[in-house]
Specification:
Chain A: It comes from Sphingobium xenophagum. The structure holds 2 protein chains of 2 kinds. By secondary structure, chain A is an alpha+beta fold. Chain A is about 35% helix and about 10% strand. Chain A has 2 domains: about 70 residues, Roll (Ubiquitin-like (UB roll)), CATH 3.10.20; about 90 residues, [2Fe-2S]-binding domain (DNA polymerase, domain 1, Orthogonal Bundle). Chain A is globular. In chain A, about 45% of the residues are buried. The mean pLDDT of chain A is about 95. In chain B, the strands form 3 sheets. Chain B has a 5-stranded antiparallel beta sheet with strand order 4-5-8-6-7. The chains are: A alpha+beta, B alpha+beta.
């Protein structure tokens, strides 16, 4: 087996202790994914594992064997330019220092898919019915696993709202 | 982290055979990988059981059987869970973050360890749970998050799971597989109070694996239930306290009440005294308060968490009042 990182197969590291995050950054030099806390508290290391957002710091690389991993390096627009969410982050001041941004972008792209599936969140009024209206409270709750120490959260929520509006149109 | 080997279990029997020689089961890793990295725990061999087949299916009796390897996010998003046990979905969604819920398994959630910071502080703190007999720095330390019920002079840590509080309220049963065969334990009997041996946290025997969790068919108070969590920030934080409450009413009286509390003890706390006190009474805030006070008679707050008593009281009253309004 192998781990497919952004479509390229890579061998799983011999040392079973290596996290998926360290595999990406230290072995493959894909440094777009960031190491914030390295203990599951900040979300900076968020990547997509078989389409689902996960924390690469708490995932052993070995656990991703046989899986598809997508990182910020493969997220682009249709013409190889910025993804619409990245563009929205620029337009809505969704970042200052940018360290949390790759995790925010990966997380929000997966979140949009969860919304499309109708998955509820803690603040969804009717759990059985799922989210009917995507309020700012819904976005904030669903993005609570990604911290921004610069405090750009309002811009981040606005950027995500812009992306959701654009994809719904 | 000390060097270790990693292998994927081919099936449940394979997992059990491998663990007999001293390996540890690995679920989603959201807790164990962190504990190993911080050297709170040590393991030389990991057997990954998170990729074993995991499905959710109806039982013959009208309940639900959830395999231990199902991810927390998948349980919360499952149509039958959302329709029949929304209190479980809400509790799951109150826990951690979307990323962590995508990783964490049901079995791992049940077996997650306390978030007491002294337990994690390998270099700087004494902890009877981490190293029996060394003492407890939480007793006279920063114990805002710690237990008010069922603690001992050896340990005042709480169990951090939200899911387990809902499972306790639902009368969930845990199915175990082990070298001596299979057995079942009610969730409320699965975790144990610290007493003199806080490093013993469950009745799980050496080599046993959590295979599945079974929910009885929804009836009575379960069909009118809710989970509410109180914490220092509005999301992505462990509970100060939480309440899973359910209420069945007929002719203006309570016919059945179910209350489980989180953040108050080393196990999800089923408030049976409060439940008993509510049967047959009119559903008023005063009656709810009197009932939960019966439960909290045995509470022993620490230097920094006496606020939890009134917080539990107010949250229970709020949850039950909302539930009595919904079906009044």
């Amino acid at each position: 087996m192998a781990i497919r990182v952004n479509g390229t197969e890579v061998a799983r590291p011999e040392d079973a202790r290596v996290s998926l995050l360290d595999l990406l950054r230290e072995h493959l030099h894909l440094t777009g994914t960031k190491k914030g806390c390295d203990q599951g508290a900040c979300g900076a290391c968020t990547v997509l594992l078989n389409g689902n957002r996960v924390l690469s710091c708490l995932t052993l690389a070995a656990q991703a064997d046989g899986s598809d991993v997508l990182t910020i390096e493969c997220i682009t627009g249709d013409a190889g330019d910025l993804h619409m969410l990245q563009q929205a982050f620029v337009e809505h001041d969704g970042l200052q220092c940018g360290y949390c941004t790759p995790g925010q972008i990966c997380s929000a792209i997966a979140m949009a898919e969860e919304l499309r599936r109708g998955d509820p969140s803690y603040v969804t009024l009717d759990i059985a019915a799922g989210t009917q209206v995507v309020t700012r409270a819904e976005i904030r709750e669903r993005m609570s696993g990604n911290l921004c120490r610069c405090g750009a959260h309002n811009g981040i929520v606005e950027a995500i709202e812009a992306m959701l509006a654009e994809t719904a149109a | 982290m000390t060097p270790l080997t990693y292998v994927r279990a081919a099936g449940r029997a394979d997992a059990l055979a491998r663990v007999e020689s001293g390996a540890r089961f690995l679920g989603g890793g959201t807790n164990l990988v962190d504990l190993l990295r911080q050297n709170v725990e040590q393991a030389s061999d990991l057997v990954d059981v998170s990729l074993l087949e995991g499905i959710i299916r109806e039982t013959d009796g009208g309940g639900l059987l959830i395999d231990a390897s199902v991810r927390n996010a998948a349980v919360a998003a499952h149509p039958l869970v959302r329709r029949r046990y929304p209190v479980l979905a809400r509790a799951l969604l109150a826990g951690a973050s979307a990323q962590i819920r995508n990783m964490a398994t049901v079995g791992g959630n049940i077996l997650q360890r306390t978030r007491c910071m002294y337990f994690y502080d390998v270099e700087g703190a004494r902890c009877n749970k981490r190293q029996p007999g060394t003492g407890c720095d939480a007793l006279d330390g920063f114990n805002r998050y710690h237990a008010i019920l069922g603690a001992s002079d050896q340990c005042v840590a709480t169990h951090p799971s939200d899911m387990c509080v809902a499972l306790a309220m639902l009368d969930a049963v845990i199915h175990l597989s082990g070298p001596e065969g299979e057995r079942s334990v009610p969730l409320t009997n699965f975790h144990v109070l610290p007493d003199a041996a806080p490093h013993v946290e469950t009745v799980l025997k050496s080599g046993e694996l959590i295979a599945a969790v079974e929910l009885p068919p929804p009836s009575g108070a379960v069909t009118n239930a809710e989970y509410r969590k109180v914490r220092d920030r509005s999301s992505y934080a462990f509970a100060l306290i939480s309440v899973a409450g359910g209420l069945a009413l007929a002719d203006g009286r309570v016919t059945q009440a179910r209350i489980a509390l989180g953040g108050v003890a080393a196990k999800p706390w089923r408030a049976t005294r409060a439940e008993a006190a509510l049967v047959g009474v009119a559903p008023t805030p005063e009656a709810f308060l009197a009932a939960i006070r019966k439960e909290l008679v045995g509470a022993r707050p620490l230097s920094g968490n006496d606020f939890k008593i009134s917080l539990v009281e107010r949250t229970v009253v709020a949850v039950l009042t909302a539930l009595s309004g919904a079906h009044a």
